[in-house]
Amino acid sequence: MAITRDKKQALVADMKNLLENAKMTVYAKYEGLSVANMEELRKHARENGVKIRIVKNRLLKVAMNEIGVYKDADTSGLTGQLLYAMSDSDEVAPAGVLDKFAKTHAALQIQGGFSGDGETLAQENVLALAKLPSKNQLIAETVAMLLSPVNDTVNALSGNLHALLDGIEAKASA
Fold it and tell me: Is the model's pTM score more than 0.90?
């Protein structure tokens, strides 16, 4: 059953909107995944703020041509059955979600991606990004590092204060 022209225009508009707001888009082959596996992937993606879309590559290329930063992007890798994972809040979340899922489902194979500024990313670059911690984890680590001198100072002063009080108490009772 062919898709109507109106449905194609709606899909292109949806993809254009997602691409304009995406900080990163990753595409992967999914041939061989069952419907249950796809639902599991979609659930995991939703939990991490990632949107999964399956559209014809030709329609995605049309949407990309309507966006200035993607007009010159290399789309030669967009062949075969692909799914697209995008996030508007975290640069590495799409790569991380797909990489984690691919470890337990060999049928999913990351092929490449696009950065938010239209740069084409090779498969090895996307896989390297997938190894990075999430944005929230990096923020938490930074805050912990910034607070460690404060905690160390409080602990040192607290320890010395207890020792001083113990010494005063020992002198008073003697």
Answer: no
